[in-house]
Write a structure and sequence with these properties.
alpha+beta, five-stranded mixed sheet
């Protein structure tokens, strides 16, 4: 997993301008089975792509930070941006990416939490290791 999220980040950034910074931190010894890693990677990619596309309109720059941690029993993915936030209620009604991330979280018995404010958005996934 240590190389997986950084490689996804490079692929995501290639489609966006350079004013947004995307940084990842993964526990160096973290090993995750393929299906779980795939779902985590897709949730990360969706959350990061949404931030890159929508969180920084008109701003000179921005940052998106992602961490993936595990303690042997649980895995925790956190994706945080310092953008403008969004209307979570309206996004819940339109479905799309949020429904996709929730569906992926359910596939790995995970819990997905999304918090947003005018100071940014946090997507948090917790699932069994």
């Amino acid at each position: 997993m240590n190389g997986y999220l950084p490689n996804l980040s490079k692929a995501l950034l290639s489609g966006f301008d350079s004013r947004v910074r995307l940084a990842t931190s993964v526990d160096p010894d973290l090993v995750v089975e393929f299906r779980r890693a795939n779902c985590i990677g897709l949730i990360y990619a969706e959350a990061a792509a949404n931030a890159l596309k929508h969180a920084f309109p008109g701003l000179a720059s921005g940052s998106v930070y992602a961490t993936l941690r595990g303690d042997g029993r649980r895995l925790e993915l956190t994706v945080v941006d310092c953008g403008l936030g969004f209307d979570l209620e309206a996004a819940n009604q339109s479905g799309g990416g949020l429904d996709f991330m929730r569906s992926l979280a359910r596939q790995i018995d995970g819990e997905l939490t999304i918090r947003t404010s005018p100071a940014g958005t946090t997507v948090f996934l917790s699932c069994p290791a």
